[in-house]
Amino acid sequence: MNLDNIISVRKNKVIYRDGDRALKVFDESYSKVMVLNEAENQARVEETGLNIPKVLEVTMIDGKWTIISEFIEGKTLMSLVNENPDKFDEYLDLFVDLQMEMHSKTCDGLIKLKDKMTRKIHEADLSATTRYDLHTRLEGMPKHKKLCHGDFNPSNIIIKPDGTPYILDWNHATQGNASADVARSYLLFCLHGNQAEAKKYLKTFCKKSDTAMQYVQSWMPIVAASQSVKAIPEEREFLYSWIDIVDYE
Questions:
Q1: How far is residue 211 CA from its own chain's centroid?
Q2: Fewest CB within a 10 Å sphere: which of 32, 141, 148, 214?
Q3: Residue 154 DSSP label
């Protein structure tokens, strides 16, 4: 296998291109269970008919677990936005349409979003009172079975030269309430310093999907608590501002 062509370097993993294959090589901090779970998520989502890279193999390279998938030629939606800022609205429409298409699918076998959020709230470095309020809020949310990405942002969308979009990185996929997925996308825009784009995204999604903005916003404390478990110092102040639910009724 050729590991000369590095596509991306991320925390705890490096992605290489080897011809028409993409090799995601995990470091030793990733257990076999975590890698196999990601590969299984991706394989399950393949069956929905969405455009995603197909899993070809799970193996070990130099003692490191590796997922081998189809390589999708193209540019990320994030790159296209940066190269063509005047086309932001056009790209945002595509982004929202893709997310709505994804939410129209179901994918049995994925972990339930509610169960994952329950675990994350329990793990969060928050007071018992705040955790109780968050658990109560989560328990009161409508239970759905829609396919949720969990990290839906423009860097996880590849646009092929012919214009076909593909959605990447299904590590955090769950089945549950789509508005939680939207709240996380909004949060990711904000965490990357794009407050104006975040607001425009939320407004566009809510208009296209006929979803009340307040409903999506009611998920913000829950997804912020989930994100806080990563313990990234520069994110803490912003996340805690969303987690503060003293006025929760």
A1: 20
A2: 214
A3: G
CA 79 – CA 77 distance, rounded (Å): 5
Contact at 8 Å (CB) between 24 and 171?
A: no
Per-residue pLDDT 10s for the chain (249 aa) are 778 889 999 888 999 999 999 999 999 888 999 999 999 999 999 999 999 999 999 999 999 999 999 999 999 999 999 999 999 999 999 999 999 999 999 999 999 999 999 999 999 999 999 999 999 999 999 999 999 999 999 999 999 999 999 999 999 999 999 999 999 999 999 998 888 999 999 999 999 999 999 999 999 999 999 999 986 787 888 888 888 754 444
Task: Give the predicted TM-score (pTM) of the model.
Answer: 0.93
